[in-house]
């Protein structure tokens, strides 16, 4: 492989989508139904056209045609051999020195769309969605606010990846406005709860991964085999109504504070694209139980930012700078734990990290932590201040891996807050 690999499609040096990435998504062209594509530079390559052209007919595809579907679910269900074969075919076809597609004017005209001319859809039909709580720094900060630093972490926290079952039906793709929810809240000095718009509306900077083939009911996925089940990753914003959450969360955890909307980025970056950015998982103390232990368990070096733009600001302002590597629990541990009692995962299920905060103040992944529950408002460059998100604010999360002369990026997940 020449170093770095180059495509005949021009890709800007700071693009998130060079030939090293090739993330999968579902797009709707100007005319015609939604179908599966891959991002390359500022283009989308239509895989349904290449499939009709006979490019994906090898045994890994089990005789199935999957790229005219309006979701990635069937492709996800085919498993790692089909994902890898697709990546190999595409890296070959898109390479600068491969002529098949490069010099076929007719096929090129059919197969490429400018990203600005297509509408991105949710990448999968998400049957189930789980949100973990895997950042030590986030959990420690929130626990300190609620219980003080001595009791910040619950006794189970370093023994298992804590999580809850979220709501799949309200997951939306980037660009979708989010309406401030109404709900029950109880002001600290009030005798009874009140009903109305949330007054402490927040974002949570997270990442999430999609499940591939899945496992039968009653058959846990051993941690060593977890990687075969992980199709790829996206950025996520777990919008949160903190005042609703504070009143409702005991004893069963988040419910209406989270279930009104969750936003994800549209391009799913595969684990093969992330491979050069894999790192050893930091040491865990106490040592986890055997079902959560794997040889060479890993994390990834993914730089993450949240940017806030208010209605009167000309430019977005970065309010969080963090990294995926700050997570305590690995995605393999999350997956092994999720299934250890026999729970079956299915193609297109989404498992999220929880808010990703780092050790420093500027690496806190939500307003709750950044403003310490509103006690220290953020001051923005134009003089405005924020304890929480306000109507008209746009919150965008972006993330990328820095390679040698290229970036493997995730694009962004963005949403604007509408009044209740
Ligand atoms: Mn969350």
Q: Keywords for this structure?
A:
Fumarylacetoacetate hydrolase, domain 2; 17% helix; eight-stranded mixed sheet; single chain; binds manganese (II) ion; 10 helices; 420 residues; five-stranded antiparallel sheet; 2 domains; SH3 type barrels; alpha+beta; globular
Report on the structure:
The chain has 420 residues and is of the alpha+beta class. It folds into 2 domains: 24-120, SH3 type barrels, CATH 2.30.30; 129-418, Fumarylacetoacetate hydrolase, domain 2. 17% of the residues lie in helices and 27% in strands. The protein is built from 10 helices and 26 strands. Strands 6, 7, 8, 13, 14, 16, 17 and 22 form an 8-stranded mixed beta sheet that branches. Strand 25 (394-402) and strand 26 (407-418) form a beta hairpin. The mean pLDDT is 97. The protein binds manganese (II) ion. Residues 131, 204, 206, 238, 354-355 line the site of manganese (II) ion.
Strand content: 25-35%
Describe the global form. Answer: globular
Task: Count every helix, treating DSSP H or I runs of 4 or more residues as helices.
Answer: 10
The total tally of domains equals: 2
């Amino acid at each position: 492989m020449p170093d770095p690999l180059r495509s005949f499609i021009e890709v800007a040096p700071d693009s998130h989508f060079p030939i090293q990435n090739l993330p999968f998504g579902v797009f709707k062209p100007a005319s015609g139904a939604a179908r599966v594509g891959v991002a390359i530079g500022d283009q989308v390559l239509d895989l349904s056209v290449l499939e009709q052209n006979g490019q994906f007919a090898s045994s890994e595809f089990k005789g199935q045609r999957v790229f005219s579907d309006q979701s990635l679910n069937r492709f996800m269900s085919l498993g790692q051999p089909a994902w890898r074969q697709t990546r190999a075919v595409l890296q070959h076809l898109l390479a600068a020195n491969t002529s098949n597609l490069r010099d076929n004017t007719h096929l090129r005209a059919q197969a490429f769309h400018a990203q600005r001319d297509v509408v991105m859809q949710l990448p999968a039909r998400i049957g189930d969605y789980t949100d973990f709580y895997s950042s030590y720094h986030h959990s420690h900060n929130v626990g300190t606010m609620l219980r003080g630093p001595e009791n910040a972490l619950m006794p189970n926290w370093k023994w298992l990846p804590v999580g809850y079952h979220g709501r799949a039906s309200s997951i939306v793709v980037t660009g979708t406005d989010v309406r401030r929810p109404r709900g029950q809240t109880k002001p600290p000095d009030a005798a009874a709860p009140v009903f109305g718009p949330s007054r402490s509306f927040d974002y949570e900077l997270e990442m999430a991964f999609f499940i591939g083939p899945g496992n039968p009911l009653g058959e846990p996925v051993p941690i060593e085999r977890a990687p075969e089940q992980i199709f790829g990753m996206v950025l996520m914003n777990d919008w949160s109504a903190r005042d609703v959450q504070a009143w409702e969360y005991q004893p069963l955890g988040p419910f209406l504070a989270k279930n009104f909307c969750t936003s994800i980025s549209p391009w799913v970056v595969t684990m093969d694209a992330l491979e050069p950015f894999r790192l050893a998982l930091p040491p865990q103390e106490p040592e986890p139980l055997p079902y959560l232990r794997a040889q060479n368990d890993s994390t990834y070096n993914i730089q993450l930012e949240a940017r806030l733009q208010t209605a009167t600001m000309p430019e977005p302002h970065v309010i969080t700078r963090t990294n995926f590597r700050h997570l305590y629990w690995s995605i393999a541990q999350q997956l092994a734990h999720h299934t250890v009692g026999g729970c079956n995962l299915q193609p297109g299920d989404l498992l999220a990290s929880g808010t990703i905060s780092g050790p420093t103040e500027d690496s806190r992944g939500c307003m709750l932590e950044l403003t310490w529950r509103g006690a220290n408002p953020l001051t923005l460059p134009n003089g405005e201040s924020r304890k929480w998100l306000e109507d008209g604010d746009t919150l965008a999360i972006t993330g990328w891996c820095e390679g040698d002369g290229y970036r493997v990026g995730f694009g962004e997940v963005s949403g604007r807050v509408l009044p209740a």
